[in-house]
Design brief:
Strands 5-6-7-1-2-3-4-8 form an eight-stranded antiparallel β-sheet. The radius of gyration is 34 Å and the shape is flat. The protein folds into two domains: 199 residues, Dbl homology (DH) domain (Dbl Homology Domain, Chain A, Up-down Bundle); 119 residues, Pleckstrin-homology domain (PH domain)/Phosphotyrosine-binding domain (PTB) (PH-domain like, Roll). The longest helix has 49 residues. The chain is α+β, with helices and mostly antiparallel strands and 431 residues long. Helix content is 58%, strand content 12%. One of its GO terms (biological process) is positive regulation of cell migration. This is DH domain-containing protein. It comes from Pygocentrus nattereri (Red-bellied piranha). One of its GO terms (molecular function) is guanyl-nucleotide exchange factor activity.
């Protein structure tokens, strides 16, 4: 039995060819899925622009500012994506996204406005009877497939996340020698920035809701939680160990990025505050030191020591996992706050101008004395290392003036330290 001789193909070339074939199959599969999902996405955008934006504009059911608050740049997004769909259907993925990315500012504006859109839509549905009837009529059309306007408005945000994954798959399965590789790589970077902005806005909105929720839980208005750079971390029950005695008291603690709030439950018999808490103390984390007294092993529970400038707090829990989570959260919050303050202080030191050298450069030894020579003498008498020198005869000051200026310098140098000591004492606020 004879066999026909087969051409000899090197093993390395065969493996490269197989890899290219796998890339091509994955690329075609990703491209087909991208085109199909883009067609559906453009149809949904067309529903919003046709049956809501255009008809509402023609009927005048909503004012122009209210329409813009709800729909923002959805019409511009629809036009841009129709052009993108044309390029994708032709198989021009790199070129299509290269033309699409310069118009991502429409998506950015839509992302920044989405929370306002939801809030305005809710208000109009509650107060505007004509709009409520119009919305219900439009959503009953067969084209909507029982989808509501509330489901359609977040679609551009979801589509950006999908673009990020599609573009990454296309880039990974495109040969670097292909001209589309660089186009797709730039598109991945541009789309990822918008996707990150969506995540940051969603996280910021969730944090705002948490701050408002805790604010409503606290009785009274003495504690203001809504601060620009404040982030909610966690909350829970912990037992406080008093410095005298052995009785532990359960308290409710709310941990934020810069403060720790200790609260106690209000009386359940209270008509309005039965489910609220009364704030007892607010501990700033700026000068806090966190130590784990015990609970390093797998024994039940643990004890955490928090040391402030003028207070010390011992927190205990019988749940080992819970006390470990509290310890990690406290250490992380304190560490991030201290590192942030260190960066700010270093930046201020770099921006600070050398006042003494500038003044010395402006004055010359032969310069004639001015009426305010005492202040210049105070600056001149201090050496480069902060040492004091006796008054020179060229300053033309009276004999007793040197001692007076020296004492004034000491008082001026001590004043900031006194103020800083007074400010550091306010580390624990009792409300």
């Amino acid at each position: 039995m004879s066999f026909a001789p087969s051409p000899c193909v090197p093993a390395g070339a065969r493996s490269i060819q197989e890899q290219r074939e796998r890339w091509d199959r994955k690329r075609k599969c990703t491209g087909r899925e991208l085109v199909q999902s883009e067609q559906k996405y453009c149809e949904q955008l067309d529903l919003i622009t046709t049956y809501f934006v255009e008809i509402l504009k023609a009927k005048g059911t909503l004012r122009q500012d209210i329409r813009e608050s709800i729909f923002s740049s959805i019409k511009s997004i629809h036009l841009v994506n129709q052009t993108l769909l044309t390029h994708l259907e032709e198989g021009k993925f790199g070129y299509g996204f290269e033309q699409f990315c310069p118009h991502l500012h429409f998506y950015t504006a839509y992302v920044d406005n989405i929370q306002t859109a939801k809030r305005v839509l809710m208000v109009q549905l509650k107060k505007n009877k004509a709009f409520r009837r119009f919305k219900k009529l439009q959503e009953s059309r067969p084209e909507f497939h029982k989808m509501k306007l509330e489901d359609l408005l977040p679609l551009p945000l979801q589509r950006i996340q999908q673009y990020k994954h599609f573009l990454r798959d296309l880039t990974e399965n495109t040969s670097p020698d292909n001209p589309e590789f660089q186009q797709l790589s730039r598109a991945v970077k541009a789309v990822s920035e918008v996707a990150q902005r969506i995540q940051d806005n969603a996280r910021s909105h969730e944090n705002h809701l948490q701050l408002r929720r805790v604010q409503k839980l606290l009785k009274g208005r003495k504690t203001r939680l809504l601060a620009p750079d404040r982030w909610y971390v966690r909350e829970g029950w912990l037992k406080t160990v008093p410095p005298k005695g052995t009785e532990t008291k359960p308290k409710m603690f709310f941990l934020f990025s810069d403060i720790l709030i200790q609260a106690k439950p209000c009386s359940s018999m209270h008509p309005t505050n039965g489910n609220k808490f009364s704030c007892q103390r607010v501990y700033p984390l700026k000068e806090c030191t966190v130590d784990k007294v015990f609970g390093h092993t797998k024994s039940q529970g643990g004890l955490i020591s928090l040391t402030f400038a003028r207070a010390k707090l011992l927190l205990m829990s019988s749940d080992q996992e819970d006390i470990n989570d509290w310890y990690r959260s406290l250490c992380l919050a304190v560490g991030q706050l201290k590192s942030k303050n260190t960066v700010v202080h270093r930046r201020e030191e770099l921006l600070r101008q050398p006042l003494r050298s500038a003044m010395d450069g402006q004055q010359s030894p032969a310069a004639s004395p001015q009426p305010h020579g005492r202040k210049r003498a105070m600056v001149r008498e201090e050496g480069p290392e902060g040492s004091q020198r006796p008054c020179s005869s060229s300053s033309r000051a009276p004999a007793g003036e040197c001692a007076v200026s020296t004492s004034k310098k000491i008082k001026l140098s001590e004043a900031p330290n006194a103020r800083s000591q007074e400010s550091s004492g306010s580390s624990c606020v009792i409300l």
